[in-house]
Amino acid sequence: MSSVLERNLKALLKSNPVLVAKLHSIKTNSRSELFMDQKDNININLFDKETQLPLYETKPIEEITNRYNEMGVVNLEIRENNNTPFASVDLDDTPLSTLLKYIL
After folding, report:
1. 44-57: per-residue pLDDT in tens?
2. For residues 73 and 56, what is the distance between their CA atoms, to the nearest angstrom?
3. Where are the domains positioned within the chain?
């Protein structure tokens, strides 16, 4: 039985064969590994095999929350929607220069 990805690529082949060729040429990322806490699926971390360092040193959600607090972001809300964690952020009172410091 073919995978969902294979069936989708087969369907896409009819309308956009160039895109399918490009998608097939994408190489698998072998430098990093993704880890997810089985008890708390909002805690997702990447581990860089070359540097032997994780993206987050502690719990990812705590580090993200702390970073938002440093930027002065208000009303950080983290919840699950259809079993998918996401964060809702109110940036109204945060100066653009503060945000750009962390983005750039």
Report:
1. 888 999 999 998 88
2. 20
3. 1-27, 31-103
> Residue 33's closest CA among 43, 44, 46, 42?
46
Whether the predicted pLDDT of 60 surpasses 90: no
**pTM of the full structure:** 0.47
What is the tens place of the pLDDT at every residue in 17-33? Answer: 999 999 989 888 888 99
Q: Which residues are within 8 A (CB) of 42 and not within 5 positions of it... i.e. 6 or more apart?
A: 60, 61, 78, 80, 85
Distance CA 11, CA 84 (A): 27
Question: Residue 71 in contact with residue 50, Cβ under 8 Å?
Answer: no
Contacts of 91 (CB under 8 A, 6+ apart): 73, 99
Residue 38 CA, distance from chain mean position: 17
Q: How far is CA 26 from the centre of its chain?
A: 18
